[in-house]
């Protein structure tokens, strides 16, 4: 303490003031990512589109809701669930009166999640929130370097949790980062989907797109992961009128097959989609 007192005593007061002012200015000056994030979020859509790295973006109107998707792909109705699917499906009770409405609020999309011009896309992130491979790397590359700067300011994200950032150069306004389990934990994966959807009200999100969380190098079983995703989405939509669309992005053929099969159970267009011969084992 004595040494500090001596240093202060030897420092001219005017210089001391300048140093304090410099520190205060640095503390009060917004970071580059904060300024750019707010600027981009305030841009008119035509101006924002100039930031996209490619012109082949996909608007929400270009993505069929489930009810139209089935009409365009008649062969889907030949895909039937199995007994294991039925056991998983028993974990939810559908409000049958909402079937028709909710079939208009979900979509299966076979393509690149980074192309979607919607309110929010979900990133299958790692706990350090550092750019990685797969979907995570693709999102970071398309969004630009300021995304990593904002992620660094958050400082990490635990497994099963989620956080939200700007979308920067992506067509999507926001990116919701969630960390899926590496140990096959179904409760943690469920938490990922619930935490992502919990941002809907605060950020007034009308549309959200999910990748197949944890099913890549993390090794979560694809079929069980789809059940968890669809069950969580159905439960949320039955109790939320503001969210207009949940999009399930299925890049791998196995996931396309699974979602086209299980969507018929959770968002049925016909009674027999979810109550047919698969129940005969009872």
Automatic annotation (TrEMBL):
One of its GO terms (cellular component) is nucleoplasm. One of its GO terms (molecular function) is ADP-ribosylglutamate hydrolase activity. It holds the Pfam family Macro. GO terms for biological process: DNA damage response; peptidyl-glutamate ADP-deribosylation; purine nucleoside metabolic process. PROSITE patterns: MACRO (PS51154). Coiled coil: none annotated. Residues 93-267 form the Macro domain. This is Macro domain-containing protein. It comes from the Eukaryota.
